[in-house]
Hints:
Layout: E1 2-7, E2 10-15, H1 22-44, E3 52-56, E4 63-64, E5 69-70, H2 73-81, E6 85-91, E7 113-115, E8 122-126, E9 129-135, E10 141-143
Antiparallel strand pairs: 1-2, 3-6, 3-9, 4-5, 6-7, 7-10, 8-9
Amino acid sequence: MTETITVSGVGAAAETTPVMTALELKRKERIEEEAVAEAELEASIPKPVGYRVLIALPNVEDTFGESGLIKAESTRREEYILSTVGSVLDMGEQAYSDKERFPTGPWCKVGDHVMFRANTGTRFKVNGQEFRLMNDDSIEAVVDDPRAVSRA
Length: 152
């Protein structure tokens, strides 16, 4: 197939072929591999049941701010364990369904950043990402900007 391309008033004929270059094939394969890996990761994350809420915790930085000082393993672990803010990924079918306990409806929804007590819920990791499964009434606040909140 011949295609005419005009750039700055100058026309040129270019030959196009339906065959992908080696670089395009590599890129396509990498995108497909990443999609499969992401699907496998999503399939390995447990689905909350009952009145449970699934929370993803933020990744903890390996260094202290701009100084670049590397944090000790115990410090990083403590920051994970004592995390008080996370993102709601999923909810069980009975979460916030009790009209007596939640007369105004759900306290949060999927996609919200929420605050909870430091040691709340069942902690687990999937591919290095930490998650918590907690009861619906363990959510204490919805947070607009999770980066603005830190432990006192």
